[in-house]
Amino acid sequence: MAVVALGDGRYDVVVRGGAAYTVALDAGTCTCPDHAYRGRRCKHLRRVAIDVTAGRVPAPGERDAACADCGAPTFADADAPDPVYCDDCTPDPGAVVRDRERGDVLVVVETLSARARDVAVGDHTVATHPTNDGYDPADAVVEALYPRRNSTPTPEPERLRERGVRTYAFPRGRLERLG
Ligand SMILES: [Zn+2]
Ligand SMILES: [Zn+2]
């Protein structure tokens, strides 16, 4: 059986011979005769639940997407616009990145779900800031800071922010992962 996500928590389960039954996961329904006439929790419902749990198809509320950096298939919130990034390409707090524009090495504090066009920086947004010209206004925003020169070991970003160390907001695409 092959499971195909249709969106809105509905899935087609294609069985041998090419017939397809449609499962509505949240409602717990299936269009197969077994379910329709006897109201049983049929094998198609079970199969969709197994595939969702295993991460093979998007869960209700998620959609298929391609990572904007590495191109790997991933899942995104159903209402999250592109670009989206896979977990590997979402820099974790403490990750070391390079600014593609200036070559500076920075430490990531947080990757926000907010988009560049929605995050204010002074009189601008991250998207309209002159230094970010050419980057996608819908890109995710990454907060990062400049580590102190000669500081060892790698600073803990959260603690530095609590201490009032200034952070800077970048469109995700401007930062290159290092290591
Ligand atoms: Zn069924
Ligand atoms: Zn990726």
Give the arrangement of secondary structure elements:
Blueprint: E1 2-7, E2 10-14, E3 20-24, E4 29-30, H1 33-38, H2 43-53, E5 62-66, E6 73-77, E7 96-99, E8 105-115, E9 120-121, E10 124-125, E11 140-145, H3 157-162, E12 168-171, E13 175-177
Antiparallel strand pairs: 1-2, 2-3, 3-4, 5-6, 7-8, 7-13, 8-11, 9-10, 11-12
The structure holds zinc ion (2 copies).
Count of discrete domains: 2
User: Which parts are unreliable, with pLDDT below 50 for 5 consecutive residues or more?
Assistant: none
Structural category is: mainly beta
Q: Give the integer mean of the pLDDT values.
A: 89
Major beta-sheet overview: 5 strands, antiparallel
Task: Tell me the strand order in the biggest sheet.
Answer: 12-11-8-7-13
Our measurement of the CA-to-CA distance between the termini, rounded to an integer number of angstroms, reads 40 Å
Oligomer: single chain
Proportion of helical residues: 10-25%
Q: How are helices and strands ordered from N to C? A: EEEEHHEEEEEEEHEE
Question: Total number of β-strand segments?
Answer: 13
**Small molecules bound:** zinc ion
Radius of gyration: 22 Å
Silhouette: elongated
Q: Helix count, per DSSP?
A: 3
Strand content: 25-35%
